[in-house]
Design a protein that fits this description.
With 295 residues, the protein is mainly alpha-helical. Helices cover 47% and strands 1% of the residues. The protein is globular. The N and C termini lie far apart (57 Å). The structure holds heme C (2 copies). Keywords: Electron transport, Heme, Iron, Membrane, Metal-binding, Transmembrane, Transmembrane helix, Transport.
Length: 295
């Protein structure tokens, strides 16, 4: 009897171990399933104007909000229901220790220094950053003074790993690959082209990869063509404060907008407003995964 019990326990332990082992191995394989594009070799200018421009890119694209106001990193603990514990690394330390090509792969392609896909860093929001702006961003990060910090190790958790194994969740390299290309012809319509560039590198983290709305999960986010219905002045107030029309609380937008957008120049706001308002003349694309039909 005792021997049978021991065998039964051994079998159960092996099945459980194999099960967790399998989920681990298969999820790791997903994170390694990435293709690195050509190594970034754009020249990095380190003059004061380039570094200041890179700081503006970092501020308006939200690096400080997640990686800390001194780029010292941030432990999100269990704040995000996903993954178990997200930890944004100390960016100043990272920039000191890594070359420009490694940094570009993380920022625009969603591929970390270990060659694996990132999970929580919104690289799809930066996929369309130009080479010049990426180089300036890197120059700024490399110039940033290091503030030492003590951060815990990130944890992924079994439930999250399982979602990757089943394909219900996708990593950031997958998302970054699906951002639509910039379409406006910069020579024919420079203002709209500048506005499109801003929209696809600042607003598509939340409002859908083409900023025409996001309905993959709640909260659903509006099609930014709605900007055509508000005045230029109300638009400026809205994106600088994150407070909605009529004083409505916009939740996540209320958190990120005051951190990112107050330093946008008048011209940047004009360009963004012109582009978003122009979208009203164009129906949003159908059959895209971030906007499935709602029954
Ligand atoms: C919404 C929060 C968020 C924003 C915004 C954000 N990051 Fe991150 N970042 C993270 C998290 C979390 C990680 C840890 C890796 C992961 O979980 O994907 C990370 C990782 C990184 C890494 C390390 C990648 C590696 O090799 O492991 C770099 C470099 C980085 N971010 C740069 C940036 C830059 C530059 C910006 C601004 C353009 C930025 N991040 C904006 C959350 C964010
Ligand atoms: C981190 C996520 C996030 C980012 C980035 C973001 N938004 Fe939003 N936005 C939201 C949320 C959340 C709401 C509120 C949705 C709701 O409750 O209807 C919102 C609402 C809005 C609204 C509707 C306001 C109203 O009164 O109904 C506008 C306009 C808007 N955003 C513009 C922008 C623009 C322009 C950008 C880029 C410069 C941007 N957002 C970037 C999350 C974001």
């Amino acid at each position: 009897m005792i021997r049978i019990k021991i065998i039964a326990v051994a079998v159960i332990v092996s099945i459980v171990t194999l099960g967790f082992g399998g989920v681990y191995v298969l999820s790791e394989a997903r994170f390694r399933d990435v293709t690195l594009e050509a190594k970034f070799d754009h020249p990095i200018s380190t003059d004061a104007a380039s570094i200041e421009h890179g700081r503006h890119i970092a501020r308006t694209r939200g690096c400080f909000g997640c990686h800390g106001q001194q780029l010292e990193g941030q432990d999100f603990g269990k704040q995000w229901d996903w993954p178990e514990r997200a930890v944004a690394p100390n960016l100043a330390v990272y920039a000191r220790d890594h070359d420009a090509a490694t940094m570009e792969a993380a920022v625009r392609q969603g591929i970390g220094a270990d060659g694996q896909a990132l999970v929580s860093m919104p690289s799809f929001n930066f996929a369309r950053l130009s080479d010049e702006d990426t180089a300036a961003l890197i120059a700024f990060l490399k110039s940033a003074p290091v503030v030492e910090s003590d951060l815990p190790k990130p944890e992924l958790g079994w439930a999250v790993r399982w979602m990757f194994v089943t394909g219900n969740e996708k990593h950031m390299a997958w998302w970054a690959d699906r951002v639509p290309p910039l379409r406006v012809n910069a020579e024919a319509e420079p203002r709209l082209a500048r506005g499109e560039y801003m929209a696809l590198t600042m607003c598509n983290e939340c409002h859908g990869l083409d900023v025409r709305g996001f309905t993959l999960w709640e909260p659903y986010l509006p099609d930014l063509a709605m900007v055509a219905a508000i005045s230029r002045q109300d638009f400026e107030t809205l994106i600088k404060t994150g407070i909605g029309i009529g004083g409505r609380d916009l939740e996540l937008m209320g958190l990120v907008a005051p951190d990112r957008f107050p330093e946008l120049s008048d011209q940047e706001i004009d360009d963004l407003y012109a582009y978003l308002s122009s979208l009203i003349n164009e129906p949003p694309a159908e059959g895209v995964f971030w906007r499935p039909d709602i029954q």
